[in-house]
Specification:
Blueprint: H1 27-36, H2 47-53, E1 55-56, E2 63-64, E3 75-78, E4 82-85, H3 86-94, E5 103-106, E6 119-122, H4 124-133, H5 150-158, H6 163-170, H7 174-181
Antiparallel strand pairs: 1-2, 3-4, 5-6
Helix pairs in contact: 6-7
Length: about 190
């Protein structure tokens, strides 16, 4: 099976004149090699070829130029339409296997980066601590599940009303009000 590369043009490795369609050959060269029985002399394109063709290595961060999710992380489709995060694939491709239960963290804080020098194995807790320290969490209505505006949060902090009254008024839990008042898990400002 040939792994198709959408949106990427490769030149035929045989005639060097036309765009390759399969096994790095253009259609006439492919047909000719098929008739001669020499197709096996030309390698199939695999996911690694596709992966490397979608990396811009011009800067310190190697930027993923393929599809990205809503958070800016690269998404790479393996044969069979299996999606994987591009930075995870990059780590395994350039460095080696990821231990079970571990994740890949970005030291550069740049979601589309797939430079193995900027990727390291870690735990979810370490990654969450990095995110909080770098202030990358979304807060208020900027969070996908946010119900409170920044003005609501300021009003809660300034209020002398009991927390359970505020919780009912804003439609959140009392523990959520408590965290807002004690400034836990919220950006200042």
């Amino acid at each position: 099976m040939t792994y198709r590369i959408k949106g990427i043009k490769l030149t035929c490795v045989n005639c060097h004149e036309r765009d390759a369609i399969a096994r790095q050959l253009c259609r006439p060269c492919y047909v000719s090699a098929h008739r001669r029985g020499t197709l096996d002399n030309y390698r199939l394109l695999g996911p690694n070829d596709v992966f490397e063709s979608r990396i811009d290595k011009t800067g310190d961060c190697w930027l993923w130029t393929g599809t990205k999710n809503d958070y800016g992380y690269g998404i790479f489709l393996l044969p069979g339409e299996t999606p994987v995060r591009a930075h995870r694939y990059a780590y395994e491709f350039f460095v080696g296997p990821i231990p079970d239960g571990m994740i890949i963290r970005h030291t550069c804080d740049n979601p589309p980066c797939v430079n193995p020098a900027h990727l390291q194995v870690g735990t979810k807790a370490e990654n969450n601590a990095d995110t909080a320290e770098r202030r990358r969490h979304n807060y208020a209505t900027e969070h996908w599940n946010g119900r409170l505006t920044r003005d609501d949060i300021q009003r809660i902090r300034d209020s002398d009303e009991p927390q359970n009254v505020l919780a009912k008024e804003f439609g959140v839990s009392q523990s959520h009000i408590s965290r807002i008042k004690s400034r836990q898990h919220r950006k200042e400002g």
